């Protein structure tokens, strides 16, 4: 779109693009509604009669319309909760009492055929109530008289953008007239050059583009916006999102949240669903790290469980780490509830669930399949969705993954990963990829697409070599004394020296620890801290994680750091905490036992780290929280550990999540200091 085009001209373009998709146009002023009304009741009434021919004669249709309208206009408990209740109604999950006293679920929308609905797009739609400033929506997409999509547009000038349009929806329209958004599937903001969609009230970094992975990555400007309109505002897409992809977390554990899918999540979830229905047995989903694979698994599970053609399946959400199981389980239960959901605490409990033909969702680790035996379940509608599929997955029969496959011989396996591996030891492509898929990948969402979509932010490498003097003679003397104490022979001395001696001593050198930690604190206070971002430190081993934490806290308590904190004015003191794997076993090293964290302790620690204003600003780790920990407010990762291959890639993408601070700071990149 050429610069200078007026908002009204762009509205007209959007209408023109919408008409071939089945939308009918009606000017906002011509709708058969009062400006105080949310619903076009005549269209809603006609749809209820048309969609429920078998039972509608038993109802007072006007009373049904009145009840639906009252539900839509109720916003008690906040917009997200009200939206959740109305979405259930729109999905046909609400029952109404007929004249004979019998309760029936009534269809309000026809999901099977979009053309069975009354589809109307209107411009300049006014809403008002006495005592309030009237507002006018640029475009509204109505389905059976219900406002499912609201669009706000801006001219592409230097002073306005899609973000300004989104703020108008969040801060003005949805705030002043929340009842107009209780039936909202999503809202759209565009400046003619970019288009984003999101849940009304959602932070701007949760507003996403809607594209197709089949299209060229370099599509931009008006062509990109037009294609987005054709994809996103197609009636089939809106109804699909309403039926299967609008999920809610109103469990009370924090702020109410509405989840909407990114387009690659939607595409991949459908491909998994379709492949299962077609009788396929596997598929590899390769999505860039940080682009939402956990939520993709939840969307896919939702589709599979809701479809009667899958004949009450068992969907296993599989991880290789307990913390990832907790994360996946939390996302699933918050969005879908805990009915038919199982998280076995032991291997025995897992075996019992499978042997007893349990249906629904099982969230577990691959380790619980150890010694599971063969043929625990021989059903072919067991679907295993494997997170981080490049890890602990092997075709070897004695491996954990091999034992799992022996226990579930007819199951279907779908792998999700950001770093597939092809090596002599592991081949993610062969294990999960179907030969008929291009390059054995069922669905691909690349780094470049993720960055272009602003689903993730770029990560900048900031190398900071640390130099210091080391007394090799003293080091050798210490090593010789150690070897003598343990009576090591020459081959053992040589092997130990070659593998561990110098490297461990380098990292554990007291002077180096002091220098590195001073550098970390100086770098953090000079940059990331001032923008409200937090930091993660990756160390060589557990002992060094503890040592770094102690030193960082010592420096943060010093006068120099206190001067910076006083200048910024957010905290009197900030702290670092360690998060390492510590066993409760009697064999655990005594000096490590004080750092044991229970599941509750760890979740509380992560909650404090994720809270923008909390004083916990550093998490110091060596292996834990390097994958599966979604911390959007992490702005910098200090890497002081040798890593390679997929471990390196996964670690350095920790800071790549998008984030907007409570003060409005927009995170534009993450930093890895190596």
UniProtKB/TrEMBL annotation:
Keyword Nucleotidyltransferase listed: no
Q: Does the keyword ATP-binding apply?
A: yes
**What region holds the Helicase ATP-binding domain?**
274-438
Instruction: Point out the signal peptide segment.
Output: none
Q: Which keywords belong to this entry?
A: ATP-binding, DNA-binding, Endonuclease, Hydrolase, Nuclease, Nucleotide-binding, Restriction system
Q: What is its EC number?
A: 3.1.21.3
Question: GO MF annotations for this entry?
Answer: type I site-specific deoxyribonuclease activity
The catalysed reaction is: Endonucleolytic cleavage of DNA to give random double-stranded fragments with terminal 5'-phosphates, ATP is simultaneously hydrolyzed
**Which domain of life does this protein belong to?**
Bacteria
- Using the record for this protein, list the coiled-coil segments as residue ranges, or answer none: none
Give the Pfam families listed for this entry.
Answer: HSDR_N (PF04313), SWI2_SNF2 (PF18766), T1R_D3-like (PF22679)
Q: Which family does it belong to?
A: Belongs to the HsdR family.
Describe its assembly: The type I restriction/modification system is composed of three polypeptides R, M and S.
Q: What does this protein do?
A: Subunit R is required for both nuclease and ATPase activities, but not for modification.
Q: What is this protein called?
A: Type I restriction enzyme endonuclease subunit
Q: Which organism is it from?
A: Streptomyces luteolus
Where is the organism placed in the taxonomic lineage, from the top? Bacteria, Bacillati, Actinomycetota, Actinomycetes, Kitasatosporales
């Amino acid at each position: 779109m050429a610069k200078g085009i007026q908002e009204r001209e762009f509205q007209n373009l959007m209408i023109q693009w919408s008409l071939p998709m089945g939308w009918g146009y009606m000017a906002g002023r011509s709708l058969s509604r009062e400006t105080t009304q949310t619903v076009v009741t005549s269209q809603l009434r006609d749809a209820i009669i048309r969609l429920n021919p078998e039972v509608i004669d038993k109802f007072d249709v006007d009373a049904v319309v009145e009840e639906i309208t009252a539900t839509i206009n109720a916003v008690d408990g906040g917009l997200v909760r009200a939206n959740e209740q109305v979405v259930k109604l729109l999905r046909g999950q609400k029952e109404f009492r007929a004249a004979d006293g019998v309760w029936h679920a009534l269809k309000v929308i026809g999901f099977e055929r979009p053309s069975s609905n009354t589809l109307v797009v209107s411009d300049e739609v006014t809403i008002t109530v006495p005592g309030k400033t009237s507002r006018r929506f640029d475009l509204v997409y109505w389905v059976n008289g219900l406002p499912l999509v609201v669009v706000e547009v801006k001219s592409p000038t230097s002073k306005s953008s899609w973000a300004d349009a989104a703020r108008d929806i969040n801060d003005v329209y949805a705030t002043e007239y929340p009842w107009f958004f209780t039936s909202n599937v999503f809202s759209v903001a565009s400046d003619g050059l970019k288009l984003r969609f999101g849940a009304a009230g959602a932070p701007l970094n949760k507003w996403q583009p809607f594209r197709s992975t089949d299209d060229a990555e370099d599509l931009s400007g008006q062509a990109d916006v037009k294609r987005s309109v054709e994809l996103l505002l197609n009636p089939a897409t809106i109804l699909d999102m309403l039926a299967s992809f609008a999920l809610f977390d109103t469990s009370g554990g924090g702020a109410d949240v509405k989840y909407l899918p990114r387009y690659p999540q939607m595409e991949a979830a459908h491909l998994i669903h379709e492949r299962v229905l077609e009788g396929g047995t596997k598929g590899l989903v390769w999505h860039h790290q940080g682009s939402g694979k956990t939520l993709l698994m939840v969307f896919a599970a939702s589709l599979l469980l809701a479809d009667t053609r899958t004949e009450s399946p068992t969907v296993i959400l599989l991880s290789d780490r307990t913390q990832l199981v907790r994360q996946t389980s939390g996302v699933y239960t918050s969005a879908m509830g805990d009915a038919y959901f199982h998280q076995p605490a032991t291997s025995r409990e897992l075996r019992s669930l499978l042997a007893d033909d349990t249906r629904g969702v099982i969230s577990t680790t691959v380790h619980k399949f150890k010694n599971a035996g063969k043929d625990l379940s021989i059903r072919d509608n067991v679907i295993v969705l494997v997170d981080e599929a490049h890890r602990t997955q092997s075709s070897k029969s004695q491996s954990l993954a091999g034992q799992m496959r022996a226990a579930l011989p007819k199951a279907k396996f779908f792998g999700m990963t950001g770093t597939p591996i092809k090596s002599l030891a592991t081949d993610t492509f062969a294990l999960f990829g179907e030969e008929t898929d291009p390059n054995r990948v069922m669905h691909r969402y690349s780094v470049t697409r993720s960055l272009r979509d602003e689903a993730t932010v770029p990560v900048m490498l900031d190398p900071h070599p640390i130099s210091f003097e080391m007394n090799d003679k003293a080091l050798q003397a210490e090593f010789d004394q150690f070897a003598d104490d343990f009576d090591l022979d020459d081959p053992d001395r040589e092997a130990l020296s070659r593998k561990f001696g110098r490297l461990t001593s380098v990292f554990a050198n007291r002077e180096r620890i002091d220098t590195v930690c001073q550098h970390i604190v100086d770098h953090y206070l000079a940059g990331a801290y001032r923008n409200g971002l937090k930091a993660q430190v990756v160390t060589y081993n557990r002992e060094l994680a503890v040592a770094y934490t102690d030193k960082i806290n010592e420096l943060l308590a010093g006068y120099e750091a206190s001067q910076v904190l006083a200048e910024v004015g957010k905290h009197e003191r900030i702290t670092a905490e360690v998060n390492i794997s510590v066993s409760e076993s009697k064999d655990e090293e005594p000096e490590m036992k004080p750092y044991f964290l229970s599941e509750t302790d760890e979740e509380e620690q992560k909650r404090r780290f994720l809270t923008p204003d909390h004083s916990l600003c550093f998490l110091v780790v060596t292996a834990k929280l390097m994958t599966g920990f979604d911390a959007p407010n992490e702005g910098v990762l200090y890497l002081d550990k040798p890593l390679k291959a997929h471990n390196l890639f996964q670690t350095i993408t920790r800071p790549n999540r998008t984030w907007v601070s409570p003060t409005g700071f927009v995170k534009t990149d993450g930093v890895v200091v190596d």
